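Subject: for your reference before the review

Hello V.,

The reviewers asked for a structural picture of the protein, and I figured it would be easier to keep everything in one thread rather than splitting it across files. Below is the amino acid sequence we used in the manuscript, unchanged from the supplementary table.
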Amino acid sequence: MSVLDLLATSPGVFWGEGEGEGPDQGGYGFRVAVQAEPDGSVTFDYESWAPHAGLHHAEAARMYRTDGGVLLVTTSTGADALTFREGDAGVFGSIGGHRVGLVLEVQAPDVLTLGWWWPAADGTLRRQSRAVVRLVRRLVAPPPVPCPGGCTASVDRTVGNEAASGAGQRSPREVPWPGILVLDGKRTGVVAQQLAERLTRAAVVRTDLFDQAVRGSGVVRDAALREQVALAVVGAYAAAAHPVILHGRSTSSEQRALAEALVDAGLRPVRLVEVGESESYGDVARRLIEGD
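And here is what came back from the structure prediction:
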C-alpha cells in the first residue's frame, strides 16, 4: 500500500520537532498541514522554524497517483518544482539530475515521520534532516460566504459565476492537477480523451461545438461568444474541483487568447499545451509531470 492511501485518511495539521545535520544542524519546529483533495491527491503545506531565527524553510507539495506509480511534486518558490517517484512505500527518489530523497512514514494515524536525504560533502547520500510531527487538529471546511437576501453561496460557485461574467478582480481559483489545459495542434481530441481517462476525473470540453450549437440562416462564426461560453463552462467545472481539458478546431491565436482569458477570469493553473503531430498522450503527460 502506498503512503498516499494512508495520508488520505489522516488529513490535519501536524506539529513537532526535528533536527538537521551539516550546515543545517540544530533543532527546528516543524508544521505540516495535510489535506486530502477531491481528485484523489494529497497536498502538503510544510514549514520549519528555527528558535530565535524565525521561518527557516517552507514548501508546498502534492502527492498523486499516475500510471507510472505515485509521484510527489514539491516547490518552495511557487515556480520551480522538484518531482519524486515512490519506490517502496513512503520512499521517494527525485526524478532527473538531482540526488534527493524523502522517506515519509505514517507511524500511526496521528504521527508522521519525515526524513530528507541529499549528498554530504563527500558525495555520499545521507539523511540530512529528520522530523517527527503529531496531529494537533483536524482540518474543517470554512463557513460559506453569505449572499444578499439571507441565502448562502459557497465560494466555489461564486468564483464560477465570476469567471463567466469576467467582471472585476478576483482571487484565483485553484483547480486540481493538471489544472486547466488548452490544447493546440492536430489530434488534440485523441490526446484530450486519453489524458482524461488516466485521471480520477476531468472535464473534456470541445470549444468549436459552441459555434455549432447556434443554428439559423444568418449565423456567423463568433469567436468572442465562443470564448465567453467557454469561460462559463470552465468556471462551472472548476467550481466542482474538476480539471478541464479544452480542445477544438480553432487557430493557435484563438487558443492563446482563450488561455489568457481564463487566467484573467481568475482561474488557476492554466496552461497552453502545443501538441506535435507525432506526439501521443504519453508524451504530453510526461511533459506535464516534468513541468517542461
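For the response letter, the relevant points are probably these. The CA atoms of residues 64 and 77 lie 20 Å apart. Confidence is low (pLDDT under 50) at residues 151-172.

Happy to draft the paragraph if you're swamped.

O.
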